[in-house]
Specification:
Blueprint: H1 7-14, H2 18-39, H3 43-64, E1 67-68, E2 77-82, E3 85-87, H4 90-100, E4 104-110, E5 119-125, E6 130-136, E7 141-143, E8 147-151, H5 158-170
Antiparallel strand pairs: 1-4, 2-3, 2-5, 4-8, 5-6, 6-7, 7-8
Helix pairs in contact: 2-3
């Protein structure tokens, strides 16, 4: 895999496969159970199977709905760390938040499945608590710690994060 392994490439390869396979497996199991319960005239089993099918379908839809990662206001933030570089300048904090806020993301793979992050971003509130923590893999993919999230609209401006992370090297 070498130096060119990025999670977005893996996701693009897997996204066409794992969702249809999972849906087909769930569909086969549900149909088999429905047939079994109908043949045996166990109506409670039919109802329970239909309820489970609806819940599984609803969960799958909710899982893939586009959503925002954050809607954090600059006034709520004390500092941001990008690749262990502390950012306290209000204008730069606003630039970072503008880059992250408002964009729509879709859940891709669970975070436990590999990948490499180029930049880590930690956003701290006024009390010093972590408001948002994520890793940026490329222009389209971020790791929230639970899922890899794929950006739906536009690209992340990696030059902003690169300039901040190279600030330490220049000093």
């Amino acid at each position: 895999m070498g130096n060119n392994f990025y999670i977005s490439g893996v996701w693009q390869s897997l996204s066409d496969l794992w969702i249809p396979i999972a849906l087909a497996a769930a569909g086969i199991i549900i149909v088999a159970l429905l047939i079994r319960f109908i043949i045996k005239k166990k109506w409670a089993g039919v109802v329970a199977t239909v309820v489970v099918a609806v819940l599984v379908a609803g969960g799958g839809i909710i899982y893939r709905l586009p959503h925002t990662l954050s809607n954090i206001e600059a006034e709520e933030i004390s500092k941001i760390e990008v690749a262990n570089v502390e950012v306290t300048d209000p204008e730069l904090i606003q630039d970072i938040l503008d880059e992250l806020n408002g964009s729509k993301y879709k859940r891709a793979l669970p975070s436990g499945i590999g990948g490499r992050e180029k930049y880590s971003v930690e956003i701290y509130d006024k009390n010093g608590g972590v408001e948002l923590s994520l890793g940026i893999a490329d222009e389209f993919m971020v790791n929230t710690g639970t899922f890899w999230e794929e950006r739906e609209n536009g690209e992340l401006d990696l030059s902003l994060f690169q300039a901040i992370s190279e600030e330490v090297l220049a000093e």
